[in-house]
């Protein structure tokens, strides 16, 4: 279920310190209930599993394949031409500085072109950088009246006019097809593994 940006901003997450110049694109409440012992890393693992499931069939799968093909053909996954490639990524670099660490000492991981920034018990942050956008994918555990759930937040910083047009063009597909399909698959996968 799509929820307001305030639902993300009112939480005391470390991500706020790193994403001050990113725009919150979407905040979704995931269709799962988590226990105290469940971590957001477990949610991320289930999210990746769900992407794999929907990427193989249906309209959402076709959209993923089309986007991947176009990314290869037009080199959208390359580093932005406006600056030198960042060794550790913008957000990994910011997080390392915040924590007084060397970026090379941060945990490795992620999926597809997303790189893990940090993984804590109650929040996980990943980033992606390419010619179209710098973006962050955040999972945060939230206490509710009925127990705990997880919010998934997508924050973006489009690269130039093309990046802004690209984000605008894919918005209806994300909202009407990709995310609803993905969240249903995530809910099913979570129930089957927990």
What are the salient characteristics of this protein?
single chain; alpha+beta; 194 residues; 6 strands; globular; six-stranded antiparallel beta sheet; 6 helices
Description of the structure:
By secondary structure, the protein is an alpha+beta fold. 43% of the residues lie in helices and 24% in strands. It has six helices and six strands. The chain has a six-stranded antiparallel beta sheet. α3 crosses α6 and α4 packs across α6 (160-193). The protein starts with a helix and ends with a helix. Mean pLDDT is 83; it is low at 79-87.
Give the N-terminus to C-terminus distance in angstroms.
Answer: 21 Å
Q: How many separate helices?
A: 6
Low-confidence stretches: 79-87
Structural class: alpha+beta
Going across the major beta sheet, what is the strand order? 1-6-5-4-3-2
What share of the residues does DSSP label as strand, in percent?
15-25%
Task: Please outline the helices and strands.
Blueprint: H1 5-9, H2 15-18, E1 23-29, H3 40-54, H4 58-73, H5 90-99, E2 110-111, E3 114-119, E4 123-129, E5 133-144, E6 147-158, H6 160-193
Antiparallel strand pairs: 1-6, 2-3, 3-4, 4-5, 5-6
Helix pairs in contact: 3-6, 4-6
Summarize the structure.
Helices cover 43% and strands 24% of the residues. By secondary structure, it is of the alpha+beta class. Strand 4 and strand 5 (133-144) form a beta hairpin.
């Amino acid at each position: 279920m799509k929820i307001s940006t305030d639902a993300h901003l009112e939480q005391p997450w470390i991500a706020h310190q790193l994403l001050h110049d990113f725009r919150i694109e979407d905040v979704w409440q995931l269709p799962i209930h988590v226990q105290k012992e469940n971590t957001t890393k477990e949610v991320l693992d289930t999210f990746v599993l769900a992407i794999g499931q929907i990427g193989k069939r249906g309209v959402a799968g076709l959209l993923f394949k089309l986007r991947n093909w176009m990314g290869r053909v037009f080199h959208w996954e390359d580093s932005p031409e406006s600056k030198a490639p960042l060794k550790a990524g913008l957000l990994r670099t910011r997080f390392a500085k915040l924590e007084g660490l060397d970026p090379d000492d941060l945990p490795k991981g992620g999926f597809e072109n997303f790189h893990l920034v940090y993984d804590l018990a109650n929040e996980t942050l990943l980033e992606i950088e390419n010619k179209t956008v710098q973006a962050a994918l955040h999972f945060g555990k939230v206490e509710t009246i009925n127990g705990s759930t997880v919010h998934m937040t997508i924050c973006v910083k489009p690269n130039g006019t093309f990046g802004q047009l690209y984000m605008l063009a894919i918005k209806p597909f994300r909202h009407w097809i990709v995310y609803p399909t993905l969240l249903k698959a995530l809910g099913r996968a979570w129930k089957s593994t927990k």
